[in-house]
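Minutes, project check-in
Item: structure for the 564-residue chain
Input as provided by the requester:
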Amino acid sequence: MNLKTLILTKCLIHGEIPDYIGDMTKLKNIDLSFNNLTGGIPTTFEKLAKTNFMYLTGNKLTGPVPKYIFNSNKNVDISLNNFTWESSDPIECPRGSVNLVESYSSPRNKLDKVHPCLRQNFPCSAPADQYHYTLHINCGGAKINTGHTKYEADMEARGASMFYSSGQYWAFSSTGKFMDDDTDLDNYIRTNTSTLSKVSAVDLELYRTARVSPLSLTYYGLCLGNGNYTVRLHFAEIIFKNDSTFNSLGKRIFDIYIQEKLVKKDFNIEDEAGGTGIPIVKNFPAEVTSHTLKIHLYWAGRGTTGIPLRGTYGPLISAISVKSNFKPPVVHSKKNHVMIMAAIVGASVLLVLLILFIMRWKGCLGGKVSADKELRGLDLQTGLYTLRQIKAATNNFDPANKVGEGGFGSVYKGILSDGTVIAVKQLSSKSRQGNREFVNEIGMISAQQHPNLVKLYGCCVEGNQLLLVYEYMKNNCLSRAIFGKDTEYRLKLDWPTRKKICIGIARGLAYLHEDSRIKIVHRDIKTSNVLLDKDLNAKISDFGLAKLYEEDKTHISTRIAGTM
């Protein structure tokens, strides 16, 4: 037999695949996808040495997958079937020319050995605290931001029999070859070369590229929280043109399935949008019940099937947006729960120590003792540094390492033996006020963890030295960045950066006032007490004059306690 191409897609064929097809040794392309074929893959198929593309997708095939399929360098797609896996060896998601996604579903399968991508409905293997509730993909394009939405990149160039997983949260499966064009190289990502119309400047980038498939294209939203979602599919016809060429006669017609349900039959992008190069968005409701969302675009043989030069007539999509219709629940993992409890216990212990120290300082618990003994009497089990460590880190408080001067002492840059860059605040121990600030700052900030609060690593109480060890802020303080006399350190902050800094300060204060378990009034907010990290993120510092207030009180009377 001299048959080279056999295409019987979606022809309602029942029964087993005939063995004699394997005797058609000159076959280059065979497509029996989306029928009702049962039984196994014939052993005679191993003789199809000249076959470059084999599509058995979307049938009811059973039994084990022949080993020669896994070792083949052909484009083979046997996804969406009911194969069994009886080996004791684990099987991962194949990458490359063999597509097996959702191909194992028999109860006899040893599913613990089968990767989730190969099981029916693509189950999620992540814990509940890693579920997500939105998904945005720029199909065929790079990672972009449109307004407040970040679209992930989707630039895998292959697609003849392709499964691609982008980490934990989404994947796609593409099936088919453009058999009616006149070249050997298929292009599954298309870029628009014409002017798009009726699209905002913000969304323009979404429609510059698209992913196209000759037959079947399925996107999977993985590890989504269960519930109701809105699926927004972005389309624009960027291949067929409205001109005088043969391409202007092309009609792209395909079906859209959401969660295996047909939601749009015979969808024609050009007709729905009112022309070529015009974006259109179609919204569909979807219910996620097993943490997986399935969006399937399928060419059922309608529309154009043979335009001269590149007959790319299968499903095409520009972008996907998925968003939950409900407020995501707050889920804490066991690890996070332990960390939260540890933080609460640690904060409580520090607060009790602080209260006891202040009471004793004021004479409520006996006679006053020297500041040195009191400070060294703080039983801090973590975050303690020796004076030798601090001197080694700062080169014995070398003036060259001095990065600032505060109301109660100097600040030095240092490097610990493990390479950690630190800032050391050296408080004066000559006054009772300095001692109070030292104790107060430890008590206030050690229990607080927030991106806009400076992080306290620990302290040193040794002899007459009162030292606080913080994370190092590369860009020093906001005061020097804006008003610094030395132009070397003064920064040229554009308005978006200034806005970011202001919002960072506001978030830090909001956390202290509203969100922290221990409510705190800073009482000394000024530009010199706002530090800037290497990315110019604002972090509030200097808690020596801060004051606690009780949560059940709606007002607190205080005064500005710092210096200008």
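Outcome recorded: Residues 366-372, 378-382 have pLDDT under 50 and may be disordered.
No further action items on this chain.
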